[in-house]
Amino acid sequence: MSPHRRSAPPRRPAPAPATPEYVTLAVGAPAHGGHCVARPVDDPSGRVIFVRHALPGETVRAVITEKNSKIWRADAVEVLTASPDRVRPLWQDAGPGGVGGGELSHVALPAQRTWKRWVLADCLRRIGGAEVVDAVTALPGTAGGAVSVEPMPGDAAAEADPNPRVRERAGAGTRTRVSLAVTDAGAAGMHAFRSGTVLPVHSLPLAVQAIQDLGLTERALWRKHFRPGMRITAVAPSDGDPLVLLEDPDAPGQAPTVLTAAGHSTGRRRVGEAVDATGLGLGRLHYSVHADGFWQAHREAPTVLVDRVVRAVLAETPTAAGTRPGDEPLDAARTAGTRVLELYSGAGLFTLPLVALTGQVHSLEGDARAVGDARRTLHDYDGAQLSVGRVTPAAVAQLGRFENAGGADVVVLDPPRRGAGREVIQAVAALNPSRVVLVACDPAALARDLGTFLRAGYRPAAISALDMFPHTHHFETIAVLERG
Ligand SMILES: C[S@@+](CC[C@H](N)C(=O)[O-])C[C@H]1O[C@@H](n2cnc3c(N)ncnc32)[C@H](O)[C@@H]1O
Question: Are 49 and 67 a contacting pair, CB within 8 Å?
Fold first, then answer.
């Protein structure tokens, strides 16, 4: 259950030793990627081993899973001294030797967020450097670049629930998109961590209930549709019934077969998504998106991100915190006329509220189908100029100019995992917008991109981080930058 549906195919790691090799490890700090830095207990100055399924401060017996000249990896298989933050994992399939996508499910949720805060601060320090740490530290409540990672609202409510069974499952049942593969034996499965091997999965606890109820992992109904190597996507839209999409590995490029929850073939290709934008004064927003196209996967993510990003773009005082109790909706009379350039705009999640409040947005997105979806959703808005194409310095320079007006006032970037990169950021800075809003799903890319913005004359004015992918090592950050 990776955060973004179109994740890269698993890399092929160096093979693990043929005979299992065990080590006893003293586990240190978390590192980016879902593991901790550990060293052999009998050789504290010895080689660093990146261990999964462990917690800082623990002593574990681990099996080596990968060895190459640079990196050794291991999975903890026995806990000799347990951390107080260790809990019973809620997803056995993602345990040692299992599938990727649930690598923190042995960690109590508050400690998962501490882990992520630590990783973010570490990335800012190691990759961004002292200049980035100083700039982030200058913001309130972020000493040493330690930005708190906030729970999503529903997960926070579940964590505070008086019922221990609800508390135990906090952060689970939140994914509206799930990507699976079919095993050689014809069952629903997922890739083993860093491997091309598909392992069967027996439950999908991170998925929303509507996807769990499909019974993809256990009902015979689905088996007759599955062929080894097929890719399965389960989608539970906020406006409508779930769908199951099957992609035949032998027919690349062919449209997937789409099935209803009852396993019947359907011609539906798109789903309806609704976003609550009442905090912005916009009521409920409605989108039409391809079922297998990119859409934010945590059930609350579209609403929370729209609220935070749109306020980040248009609030007078820079904020990455979204609508707070007592905040007025945005005043459309003031925001109208703000020129917004939006890069990596997907199916128009932010474009719709931004154009509703400003009247003019230029957007750029590489996926033609997503832009087609955005055009459908935004057909009533003349002020939205939605372009298909790669985000390049030339495209930024061209789209950043507004007819009879000048350059963009605000640029929004929501790039894929690798970040926007130096050349694109320099092209954004050359437009001289007064504000930039950067949404990042990878802390290493965020640190790199923040460094580039600093050198181009922009400083962070607000930052927030959200635990949009509980039980995995992933999280999302929103940074607001201002000129000077
Ligand atoms: C993290 S998603 C964000 C989409 C949208 N903001 C949302 O929240 O739904 C990143 C988007 O960037 C697009 N993308 C990735 N690389 C790109 C590139 N080089 N040029 C243009 N678009 C790209 C992807 O197709 C994807 O829609």
Answer: no
In the chain, CATH 2.40.50.140 covers: 1-86
Mean pLDDT of 186-208: 95
**Ligand 1 near 475 CB (within 6 A):** no
CA 55 to chain CA mean position, Å: 22
CATH 3.40.50.150 location in the chain: 101-170+272-278+298-484
**The predicted structure's pLDDT at residue 282:** 97
pLDDT computed for residue 171 by the predictor:
97
Structure token pair of residue 4: 């973004």
1-86 maps to which CATH number? 2.40.50.140
Say if ligand 1 is within 6 A of residue 353 CB.
no
Is 441 considered catalytic here? yes
Q: What is 101-170+272-278+298-484's CATH number, 3.40.50.1980, 3.40.50.20, 3.30.750.24, 3.40.50.150?
A: 3.40.50.150
For ligand 1, whether the C-beta of 307 sits within 6 Å is: no
Answer yes or no: is pLDDT of 448 > 60.
yes
pLDDT at 9 (0 to 100) = 42
pLDDT single digits (tens) 276-298 = 999 999 999 999 999 999 999 99
Question: What residue type is 88 in one-letter code?
Answer: R
pLDDT (0 to 100) of residue 17: 60
Is 381 among the annotated ligand-binding positions?
no
Render pLDDT for 19-32 as a digit per residue (tens, 0 to 9). 899 999 999 999 99
6 confidence band (pLDDT: 50, 70, 90):
very low
Catalytic residue (one of 121, 429, 441, 480): 441
Residue 206's contacts (CB-CB under 8 Å, 6 or more residues apart) are: 1, 91, 101, 102, 172, 173, 174, 175, 178, 470, 471
ipTM confidence: 0.99
Q: What is the per-residue pLDDT across 320-343, written as a single tens digit (0 to 9) for each?
A: 999 999 999 999 999 999 999 999
CA of 396 to the centre of ligand 1 (A): 14
Cβ atoms within 10 Å of 17's Cβ, excluding its own? 12
Ligand 1: residue whose CA is nearest its atom 17: 366
Q: What is the pLDDT of residue 3?
A: 39
- Is the Cβ atom of 287 under 6 angstroms away from ligand 1? no
Work out which ligand 1 atom sits closest to the CA atom of 417.
Answer: 1
